[in-house]
Write a structure and sequence with these properties.
single chain; 111 residues; mainly alpha; Helix Hairpins
């Protein structure tokens, strides 16, 4: 799904409710909460913190999507086109970090 489509679908979802978009700081708190849930799952899978025996397995993809959903909400609320913003940040990384790490050599077939 394209980011513009994702932003439109999130807006359609929120627009069907009278409450609409929550205040910016509430959405920031939601984002932090979702990132915390993602961090917990990553720590269970790859870190030193093991799950409790009765703790259910979480879906890492859904935890990531929860974070993305709230990011889309914040972008919509602030009138930000995330697709355009992502293009800008990728260019920033290309310029700033393009020679920072060792590139993988491509074979003749890949070039």
């Amino acid at each position: 799904m394209e980011l513009k489509t994702a932003q439109d679908r999130v807006h359609e979802w929120i627009s069907q409710f009278e409450e609409g978009y929550w205040p910016p700081l509430t959405n920031l708190a939601r984002l932090i909460e979702e990132v915390g849930e993602l961090a917990r799952e990553m720590n269970h899978r790859f870190g030193h913190k093991t799950k409790k025996p009765d703790e259910p397995e979480q879906d890492l993809a859904l935890e990531l999507a929860d974070v993305l959903f709230v990011l889309l909400v914040i972008a919509n609320q602030q009138g930000i086109d995330l697709g355009e913003s992502l293009e800008r940040v990728l260019e920033k990384y290309r310029v700033r970090d393009g020679e920072r790490w060792t590139r993988i050599e491509k074979s003749a077939e890949e070039v």
